Amino acid sequence: MLVMDEEQTRAALPFPELIDAIAKMFASECVMPVRHHHDMEVPGEAHAVMLLMPAWVPGEYAGVKILNLFPDNHSRSLPSIIGRYLLSSGKTGEMLAMVEGGELTARRTAAASALAAKYLARDNAETMLMVGTGRLSLNLMQAHAVNRPLKRFLLWGRDAAKAQAMAEEAKALGITVSVVTDLAAACAEADIISCATLSSEPLIRGEWLKPGVHLDLVGAYKPTMRESDDEAVRRASIFVDTRAGALKEGGDIVMPLQAGIISKDAIKAELAELVAGSHRGRASADEITLFKSVGAALEDLAGAILAYQHASGQAGA
Question: What domains lie within the chain, and their CATH numbers?
Answer without folding.
Answer: 2-104+298-311 (3.30.1780.10), 113-295 (3.40.50.720)
